[in-house]
Design brief:
Helix 1 packs antiparallel against helix 3. The protein contains nine helices and nine strands. The protein is α+β, with helices and mostly antiparallel strands. Strands 1, 2, 3, 7, 8 and 9 form a six-stranded antiparallel beta sheet that branches.
């Protein structure tokens, strides 16, 4: 399934501009800044189809012959036969739907309980995709240049996001650091009657976390393998 969303992903924190010199004569001036990590334009992502919905559609649209195959029977003359018993095809269909897709019903209207289940599946899948996009953007901002994220010409020397003191610390607690420093939400573009009925609201990409002091005061840009300081010489 292809769905278009509008992301709102903003880093708020320290950046280090290696094109400036601080009071000690060292390359790299730190300042508080807000940086948009993803463009505020619609992006289309592909998510997995709900496996229960696929099964529902398969049973709902199955012919008598296909229904008979599903239960190991045969079909003839508009009926299904199993062990010499005649069974109404629609009864077979309803029994299969109850057995195989009990947790899923098609969206029948705005605010329906079935819509809540389907909306939950879709938002979970969108969040999985967007988490990876956000993490990739953060890594670019830490290791390269935030100009890349802003569609500007790459700086020389660059300006980077201010990360934890060590790369190992960031890799160990990447999710926690992102949650504390990046605001990430998205809106689903309801460009079809199906999506409109699901009543999407603004959704958070990451679950909120309780404030901690783990990264406070750790705004020194870590000495990563790209060694950006050397680029400024």
């Amino acid at each position: 399934m292809r769905i278009s969303v509008i992301p709102e992903v903003i880093y708020r924190g320290i950046t280090t501009n290696y094109g400036l010199t601080n009071a000690q004569g060292e390359k790299g001036v730190k300042r508080l800044k807000s940086v948009r990590l993803l463009p505020e334009t619609p992006i289309t992502i592909t998510i997995a189809d709900n496996p229960i919905r696929k099964k529902y559609d398969k049973i709902k649209n199955a012919s008598n012959f296909e229904l008979a195959q599903m239960i190991g029977g045969a079909s003839s003359g508009g009926n299904i036969y199993v062990a010499n018993k005649i069974i109404n095809p629609e009864l077979v269909r309803q029994q299969l739907l109850t057995k195989e897709t009990a947790t899923f019903k098609p969206v029948s209207g705005r605010g329906s309980s079935s819509g809540v289940l389907e909306r939950g599946f879709i938002t979970r899948e969108i969040k999985k995709k967007l988490r990876e996009l956000v993490k990739d953007a953060v890594r670019v901002g830490l290791d390269n240049d935030i100009a890349i994220l802003l569609d500007d010409e790459e700086g020389s020397p660059p300006e980077v996001l201010g990360g934890p003191e060590t790369q190992a610390q960031f890799e160990e607690d990447e999710d926690e650091w992102i949650k504390q420093n990046v605001s990430a939400t998205f809106l689903v573009i309801k460009d079809s009657p199906y999506l409109n009925r699901l009543q999407f609201a603004q959704e958070r990409v990451f679950l909120s976390v309780a404030p901690t002091n783990r990264f406070r005061g750790s705004n020194k840009f870590y000495q990563h393998q790209n060694n950006l300081a050397n680029l400024c010489l």
